[in-house]
Q: What sequence folds into this?
């Protein structure tokens, strides 16, 4: 009886693995493709902490003018993103200066 | 003579095929993680506040199940002697815990790959991404090693140990980091 249960669980696991692979390729997400290079960079590097809409998560909220209020000068934000501080990683080693400029510009529109 | 050589080569050839299959799985996941545009979305949170809490606790459950599986495996191979008489269901319990660990890991891996992709922002993230891809390759090798007969004797315990070690590495670079270093204000669950 126990062995039969284990066999059923193994079959379900196999089905689960199949669903896993299918969803990876078919689920496009609610927002579709990023609308700009800055949005794509944000989705790839920032959204996991700051949320897909910049509403905050592990990292602070950026949206609704919050980041503009914290960094009135865009160059200060670029420097912060480049060098990092505290829990914020230094993206200067990961992104080019142009990419950082693009993503910073994008966050200021959220 | 030729037949004898072929027979001797057979286990090595089988092992090579199994390793190549596992490598293909790891590589495929890594390529997907790099090529796919991360959505940055939280596809599900269940009873948790954010997806990250779900991932942390599910990953902890996976490591716990894997630890139980390792202990059951050690008893199966006679490396430990508790209980003194091995119950007849030991092998099935070993299979069940491993299968459940795999199933519980899927929602975590899906969120990682689909929402975040393979990232290299920090050393911790790079190591975590790499180990995450290696895990499913190693798991594939483990499952195929169980099914394929005639592999070298020590294949199964070595591969099983490697799968567990990779899993612990994944947990250390994610859940433990979250438990010890998460920013102030982020709930534990």
A:
């Amino acid at each position: 009886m126990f062995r039969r249960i284990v066999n059923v669980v193994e079959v379900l696991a196999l089905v689960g693995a199949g669903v896993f692979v299918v969803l990876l390729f078919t689920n496009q997400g609610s927002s579709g493709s990023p609308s700009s290079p800055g949005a794509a960079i944000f989705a790839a590097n920032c959204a996991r902490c700051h949320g897909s809409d910049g509403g905050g998560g592990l990292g602070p909220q950026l949206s609704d003018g919050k980041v503009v209020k914290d960094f009135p000068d865009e160059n200060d934000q670029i420097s912060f993103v480049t060098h990092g501080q505290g829990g914020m990683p230094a993206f200067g080693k990961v992104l080019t200066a142009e990419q950082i400029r693009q993503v910073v510009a994008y966050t200021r529109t959220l | 003579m030729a037949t004898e050589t072929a027979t001797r080569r057979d286990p090595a050839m089988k092992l090579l095929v199994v390793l190549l299959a596992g490598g293909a799985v790891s590589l495929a996941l890594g390529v997907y993680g790099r090529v796919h545009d991360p959505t940055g979305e939280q596809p599900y949170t269940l009873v948790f506040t954010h997806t990250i809490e779900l991932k942390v606790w599910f990953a902890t459950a996976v490591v716990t199940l894997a630890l139980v599986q390792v202990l059951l495996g050690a008893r199966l191979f006679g490396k430990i002697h508790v209980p003194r008489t091995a119950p007849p269901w030991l092998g099935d319990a070993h299979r069940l815990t491993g299968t459940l660990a795999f199933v519980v890991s899927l929602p975590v891996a899906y969120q990682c790959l689909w929402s975040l992709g393979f990232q290299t922002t920090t050393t911790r993230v790079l190591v975590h991404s790499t180990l995450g891809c290696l895990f499913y390759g190693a798991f594939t090798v483990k499952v195929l090693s169980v099914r394929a007969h005639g592999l070298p004797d020590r294949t199964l315990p070595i591969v099983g140990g490697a799968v567990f070690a990779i899993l612990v590495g994944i947990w250390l670079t994610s859940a433990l980091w979250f438990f010890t270093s998460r920013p102030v204000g982020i709930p534990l669950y």
Observations:
- The mean pLDDT of chain B is 89.
- The longest helix of chain B spans residues 2-35.
- DSSP finds five helices and no strands in chain B.
